[in-house]
């Protein structure tokens, strides 16, 4: 499927216009050919009427002949000569056929001398439909001649071969003579000149089609930029909102984009109000919890001063309570940050992951300075994802900390883009994940190493962060036969 709107508009518009041009050209070609054939038919109709005006059937001898008048004879010869009917090789002819025997009983080329006719192959024969005598109007046909009885003539004479290979338009009149039978008067003309004209038209149309295709393509390219320009402007405004330069979409757009503009502005307004309500509620929660924690801490300090010096067990209990209070404060701070995780569909600018990874590498190398191992980062500067900076720091911090804690000699971070997702692999050479149901580690409170510190929520929190922006986490086996955490993040 074509994903670009501009490509769709170009292909569809270009295709429709080209199909229209081809159809128009085909119709023009067909109408031109029909018009020229119709002209030939009208010409043959007039010729047939002229010839029949001089032709007479002699009932006495059963022959067709020119009227026995000197002027008529002269006029007939002149008319036949003007129309080039006296030589069949001129691609014009007129003759009368006996419909029963198929023989030529009169021909304009022999001027009514049936006894002295040339050989039968001299005349072009056609597969004519036999009809009863009826209207004086001629019937028309467009046919190729039948092959001659002596086929050697086609090989010996190129002119004869050309005659038999071309098409002819015929005007055919059928009439009967009592006691003699049916006769067909045929006047024909070759349409080689029409075919040549149509061939020239096809060549000119091919050139015209090519030039039209180029011009249409150029016009479509210009039109596509004009049509897609509002979408590009819309995209710029959205990116400005992502970068924090604007809060809503303000420019005027075509009516097709107005529903999208209004829906997006409504979503942004709702998102802004929702975040503000979250912030206010969380601030109220933090303020409400701060007072009882302060009171508890004050009482512990008082107990520490009064009783710890006399009873060591009370001092131990006080230390435990102080650590738990501090832990509660950390959890509250953590959950306050977690509640602000950007939900899917929020406007967050795509940003590179390398700076965050390098900062975390420096920190973790100090945390695990007593453990000799290497942290490799092979992700390039083009590796970017759409995620809040704090969420990114917490996500990679949790996962890299786990990898550093369980690795032997190496932790490696690599990244590649797969369609609209950035795929990040965090590999180590430790013990890896359990073979049976490793996905259980993504659940809150579950840890692979129950003896290590922590609440077992690191992987679960990472899963929440990734899921909130439409990504996912997979637990696999690394090339170092340890653990691989694969993260799919939107770009």
Task: Give structural notes.
The protein folds into three domains: 194 residues; 82 residues, Helix Hairpins, CATH 1.10.287; 141 residues, Histidine kinase-like ATPase, C-terminal domain (Heat Shock Protein 90, 2-Layer Sandwich). The protein contains ten helices and 14 strands. A five-stranded antiparallel beta sheet has the order 4-3-7-6-5, covered by helices on one side. It has a five-stranded mixed beta sheet with strand order 9-11-12-14-13, with helices on one face. Strands 1-2 form a two-stranded antiparallel sheet. Helix 6 runs antiparallel to helix 7. The two termini are 21 Å apart.
Number of strands: 14
Rg value: 49 Å
Order of helices and strands: HEEHEEEHHEEHHHEHEEHEEHEE
Strand count, sense and closure of the main sheet?
Answer: 5 strands, antiparallel
EC number: 2.7.13.3
InterPro entries: HATPase_C_sf, HATPase_dom, His_kinase_dom, HisK_dim/P_dom, HisK_dim/P_sf, Sig_transdc_His_kin-like_C, TCS_sensor_his_kinase
Pfam families: HATPase_c
GO molecular function: ATP binding; phosphorelay sensor kinase activity
Could you give a short description of this structure?
50% of the residues lie in helices and 17% in strands.
Q: Any chance you could write out the topology, listing elements then pairs?
A:
Layout: H1 5-54, E1 55-58, E2 63-66, H2 70-82, E3 92-98, E4 104-107, E5 139-143, H3 152-156, H4 158-165, E6 168-177, E7 181-190, H5 192-242, H6 258-306, H7 312-339, E8 350-352, H8 354-367, E9 374-377, E10 384-386, H9 389-406, E11 410-418, E12 421-428, H10 458-468, E13 472-477, E14 483-490
Parallel strand pairs: 9-11
Antiparallel strand pairs: 1-2, 3-4, 3-7, 5-6, 6-7, 8-10, 11-12, 12-14, 13-14
Helix pairs in contact: 1-5, 6-7, 8-9, 9-10
